[in-house]
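Budget justification note: compute hours in this period were largely spent on complex prediction jobs such as the one shown. Inputs:
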Amino acid sequence: MTPTKRMLHLAFALGKERLFSTRMLIMLPILLLFIPGMAWGFADPNIQLPANQIPENATETMFLASIGIVFAGTMAAVLIAHDGISRDRTNGVLEVRLSQPMPRWRQGVVMIIGHWTSIAFPVTFLLFISMLLVGYRSDMWIPLGDAIIYVVAAMLVLLWYTVFALLASSIAREQGSAIAFSIGLWFLFTLLWVLFTTLLAALNGVAVGDTQDQGYLIFEGRLDLLSPNGVYHHLLETRLDGVERGVSALGAYIAAFVWTIVPLYLFQRRLNRLVP
Amino acid sequence: MGGDIAMQFSAIGFRHSIPKPTWYNPLKKGKGAGITHVDLAITKGEIIGLVGTNGAGKTTLLRMISGILPLEEGNVSQAGMELDVRTLRSMVGFMPEQVRWSSQQTIRQTMTEFAYLRGCSVQSALDVLSLVGLRNRIDASLDSLSQGMRQRLSLAVALLGTPEILVLDEPFNGMDPVATDAFKRLLRSLADKGISIIISSHHLIELDLLADTIALLHRGQLLAHGTTESLQSSLGFQQMTELVLDKMIPESLAKTLNILDYVDAANEHRYVIESGRHDLLETLIEKKFQISTWRVVPPTLIELLCAATGLDRETIGMDVEQSSMIPLRTIGGEEE
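Corresponding output:
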């Protein structure tokens, strides 16, 4: 068996274990509520949204429903992967793993793929359900190209959070720190980022709070490149008409590439230096 | 030992990174305790007992030998060829001090996973379970295993892929006496097949009986390595003989002996004397002594460690704090 096949076998086994874990069972109702639940809600023809926003097509509805991915999907990724390394470190299994001849970078890829697929699989399934729900309820069907971008962007943001959580797990020496680190990071990008953006905008003399102010939108759009959730939304916005937030489609793709490569590199670097 | 060298570690060293916060850099790290300049030749089929106090560096050394910790200094070679870390890991099977295997996974799934990590066949991995007596528990979940069984599973994982060297850190912990005995016999049979074994244990009596050679480690340095006899002579250790007699040795004869210990029991007199008086046995028989015991008393591993370090038993037992502070070069009064 080739090393790559062995790697894939291990990743599959890990993904399966995590997919059918108790943790996933607990998160499944939350994912159900946030992903298809939000899509169902935003697809309501009589929906009343702030600033009189009315979704005009299925892509816009799915864009609004993407908040379910930002809140529940990324949280689930963090909860699945936060003890990916720290648990093994605590119970001594990490030492046995690190003494095996399979190179550490391959072991790292196994961890990433295993954890990522375990959350990516149910989320992808729920996304398809969401698209069907939107089509059924609003009679507007999402074009295939938009659907692909929508799913790929969701998979990417889940990958980023999985890698962050694993990176945090490799740094933490016990479970408490691992979860605090991971949830802290999720909290920063998901909730505190708005505060951070507003604060920086105010310091730069931009009209804070006016969501129609082009200066603020551009400032926020550019700052969002520093946040995984922001890049995720930029990727989705490449399929929306009339959105001008100062970042081109190419810029969003480059940012997504950087957000993929840098954490992966940092994680692999960390794994190579890992001491049990 | 004089056999074929399985692996040679030359001047290897590693220092742990420890927090050394300063007011301007609270995350600053510095070099702490570790292993310095250890030379260790491992012979094929040899069982090496690694002896040292808590914090002497045993686990660090074993992790270095297993390829878990990098060799910051020195190198490892086989037949004159320097080995890289990946080759080293493929040649060494490692059993850590205590692995708390716990999950819903079964033993079969765990062995399959490690077979992939090791690069050996799944069937051979499952076959190893027979060797450690876990075959009949193959579908038991890890959560249901006792500590002794977990130790056996750790050994099974260490034996995957037929390693040339087996590194065992405190393997007897949590094992009942019967399992310990079976474990020792298994290790001996593995050694007879040519597998070299390095074993660290605080069960010194077990270790003494099992090991072919002893390596004495103290404050991150390998003080001595050899058979008990060679260590005894190289450390200038005196040979001792224990004899139990029915009556006291007369004073005239006692003056000519170096009596190290004497116990006056109910009907017998126990002496420990310095060996070397070849005429003593003959003299005692002539004087109509009844000799119920006559045996050479080997020094214990603790005595050897004391002799090697120059510390007494009490000091060496309480030397934990200092033992984690290996001699370091200093710059301006601060550790380098």
